[in-house]
Amino acid sequence: MLTPTSKLFLPVAGVALFLGAVYKIISGDLLGSVLYLMVGAAAFLLGVMLSSIRENEYAPAMAPNAPPPGVRPVAVAPLPGGGGWPVAGGIAVALVMVGLIQHPVFTWAGVLVGMVAGAGWLARSASESTGRPISLLPLGLPVLGLATIASVMFFLSRILLAVPEAASTAIALSVAVLILGAASLAAVRPNITGRTLATALAIGTVLMVGGGITAAAVGERHLEKHSEEHAGEAGLVQLKAEGVTFKTDHIELAADEEVEVRFDNNDRDVQHNFAIYGADPSKPVFRGQLVSGVATVSYKFHAPGVGEYKFQCDVHPTQMKGTVTVK
User: Fold this and answer.
1) Residues 6 or more apart whose Cβ sits within 8 Å of residue 142
2) Which of the following CATH numbers is that of domain 236-326: 2.60.40.10, 3.40.50.720, 3.40.50.11540, 2.60.40.420?
3) Where are the domains of the chain?
4) Omega of the bond prior to 294 within 30 degrees of 0, cis?
5) Which end of the chain is more exposed for a tag (fewer CB within 10 A), N or C?
6) Contact 201, 145 (CB under 8 A)
7) Are 322 and 246 within 8 A, CB to CB?
8) pLDDT tens-digit series, residues 216-265
9) 110-130: per-residue pLDDT in tens?
10) For residue 315, what is the DSSP state?
11) Angstrom distance (rounded) from CA 16 to CA 19
């Protein structure tokens, strides 16, 4: 039988899975569809788990020959608290929202924090409703281990891409030595408590996530210099995007001729494009396909007539824009 709380989470799971499928079909964005899928899976898991907690929803059956109820003093219990889990859940939601606007690394950090906050909050609520202490260590150790591995694999790469090349080598070696030392210590000291291991894993995960978010805010260093050997070709224009901005706000094209705009998107895992608009913003003169960085694409099209136009990225029109002089 479903409880009122499970009746809330199970429909949310279905809606999230449906939206994820629709979003993938319409936009083709894998990251967004995976986010919907993770939200749906988390809601489904919560719905199934909460459907088994029914101790306080129904009055126990009374035998026909049961004695009258006795009177005893009422013990006033403290109000249920949430500890720090509601705060962690709020931080997770904020990170996901920031990630949808700024950088996917914030979204992945928010999902990771949200999973931990959901498990801890659910365990605390179950403990308060049943009166039995619930230990998350048997589940928390493997989950924290996987979270630490995932954070090292993903967020460490963000850190290494943001710092200078020499520093990235030193950081990678230092992290490898720390991991090897911690694993060796755990192997030779089998009496280390589970709480100590969980604390060490949690600290490592927090450091990796925090470092990855900081690196995403700083931005990546320039990894390669694109070839400029064809910069002098007739009708060829070089245009670069980095840090969610065009490197130039003015370009020139030859009127009524076949031209090429070679567009370098240097923002990793961020979509940009190049589009030209005239007086009517609803009718683009030219609109290039979206490209996820880091990548280079060549837009070839027939230039419009003489005049002043504007160009922009359709994904970030207020941040990435400029003027086109056609003559």
Assistant:
1) none
2) 2.60.40.420
3) 4-53+84-218, 236-326
4) yes
5) N
6) yes
7) yes
8) 777 766 555 444 444 345 568 999 999 899 999 999 998 889 999 999 99
9) 887 777 777 777 767 666 666
10) S
11) 5
